[in-house]
Amino acid sequence: xxxxxxxxxxxxxxxxxxxxxxxxxxxxxxxxxxxxxxxxxxxxxxxxxxxxxxxxxxxxxxxxxxxxxxxxxxxxxxxxxxxxxxxxxxxxxxxxxxxxxxxxxxxxxxxxxxxxxxxxxxxxxxx
Length: 127
Description:
127 residues; mainly beta; seven-stranded mixed beta sheet; 50% strand; globular
């Protein structure tokens, strides 16, 4: 029902900014809460940020709060993650995930709450 495709990853230096995108197919996307997760080699997947389908509610992991900003453009079926002041510890594969919900302000920080996942985009931050 919903297919997700991330893009925009790359190799940057510490302190740089990068914006990654999650483009969705399917009309249901406008009623999906979306989360960003990341996984570094040898580590568990972790929550990064989430946004409700209305856009009125957002959440951030403590490690990225104040540096990362999530937004969505439903006309473009896209959710963005703007990342600033990147650090080497931000290096990971970033995944977007979506869940269809009837609650406009709903989001989740738990990966098992999401039904649809993208393939991921690699972000590498050099020191």
